[in-house]
Amino acid sequence: MxxxxxxxxxxKGQQLSDSEIREFILGYTDGSLPDYQMSAxxxxxxxxxxxxxxxxxxxxxxxxxxxxxxxxxxxxxxxDKHSTGGVGDKVSILLAPILAVLNIHIPMISGRGLGxxxxxxxxxxxIPGFNVNLELDKWKELVIQxxxxxxxxxxxxCPADKKIYALxxxxxxVRSIPLISASIMSKKIAEGIQGLxxxxxxxxxxxxxTPEASRSLANSLVSIxxxxxxxxxxxxxxxxxxxxxxxxxxxxxxxxVRGLQGDGPKDLMDxxxxxxxxxxxxxNPDLSxxxxxxxQTRTVTDGxxxxxxxxxxxLQGGDPRVLDNLSNYPKAKYSGVITASKSGYLSQVxxxxxxxxxxxxxxxxxxxxxxxxxxxxxxIHARLGDKLEKGDPILSIYSNDEKALEEVLNKGKEYFSIDxxxxxxxxxxxxxxx
Length: 434
Ligand code: URA
What we know:
The chain is built from 17 helices and 13 strands. Strands 1-4-5-13 form a four-stranded mixed beta sheet, sandwiched between helices. A four-stranded antiparallel beta sheet has the order 6-9-11-7, sandwiched between helices. A three-stranded antiparallel beta sheet has the order 10-8-12, with no helix packed on it. The longest helix has 18 residues. The structure holds uracil. Uracil (URA) binds next to α9. The site of uracil has 8 residues, from α9.
């Protein structure tokens, strides 16, 4: 294989063969191909796309770059949820303990921040001591005994995705249906699950910004899952504004804890329960939608889901006391507030810009080697359609980087539009794909 020729072939929009895809991906994974050649191929795929055959070949080689888990000895249904990425999307942190309490085994393998969107692993690591790099045996034991274990790709599970994902994050090659499909589905198939629900985001804070593009992505993901014998459904959910109020790693853990304590924002809880209902109904097709929601809300009202989050935190090396004492967490040195420049209805939020503002403040990475400032982030105080008076707070900003804070404060006013008339509010859940 001559990497140059493969890059050129894809850059001209031609179909790559299974063996070309395989050799290139495995070559990059074992270090024989450098970042710059992989980046060039990623950009060519990003621009030219891949057909179904190529996407399946890419998924297969990423899956086979590592081990596949076997949970056939697990007594209960084994399932997972995955999001295509958005801003303020902390659903996994709520849903994993809720479903674990309801006896669903959740072997969750998550990702780090990607492009403008946050990552579950970074959020979990904002809990002091939380280890997302468990030995696979220990993780499997947690998934069987506690019904949940939360890790990232290891050297053993989809190492190809781990390496490529980090490169896509900094080369603007995220927003691609074949790359997202192969990345998500290789990890999910490797988990050895029986059921999967996908939260496919749509809107100006999603990688796929129109319902049509999101539907194509959802269809691609669902058909790969079903092709591997996994019960797979997808919900297309709105990302024209952040989910909940908090953006940034620790802020999102805090909001998740509040959600599990019965005080979560309605949009966040509604999406969480809707996704959870998909899995509960795959596990028990006789369960009605209302009963599936009710079962989940009960794990919140009786405190069992929050106890489960604390237990899993402790078992993964984290300090559960921080979850009981949220206000003791170290605060960012600098803060500021953006207020409404006039009275009217909040009619538009530049959600992607908010995600990038989070990165600028320190809540995400600009390059692969960056570390994250867990205390930085944003709180949005208004939702689309809210009536605002001039001077009402819209966004609170926190950072340990004074200059970045100033920049976001100055630019941030442009992220919001206020109109005299009530805007049309997109539905939270647009569609279900089966
Ligand atoms: N989540 C993933 O795991 N991969 C992507 O490419 C996008 C979201």
